[in-house]
Specification:
mainly alpha, membrane, about 0% strand, flat, transmembrane helix, transmembrane
């Protein structure tokens, strides 16, 4: 039986939606893309990958704030 990983499916959908030209997108398309990306974030957040992304962004923000001093 074939199983579909919802997170991977959302990644593919987001990539296809973002590849469209900006002029071809309506406001509804933009709002729908935001909702899909938020859902993707909720699915990724509790995973080890999500924690790794959070740690990376935290270190990046910390280094940027220290370099501005």
């Amino acid at each position: 039986m074939l199983t579909i990983n919802v997170t991977l499916l959302l990644v593919v959908i987001v990539l296809f939606r973002l590849r469209r030209r900006t002029e071809a997108r309506s406001r509804f398309d933009e709002k729908l893309t935001v909702v899909i990306v938020l859902a993707l974030g909720v699915l990724i957040a509790p995973t080890p990958v999500g924690h790794g992304i959070l740690n990376f962004l935290g270190q990046l923000a910390n280094s940027v704030s220290q370099s501005s001093r």
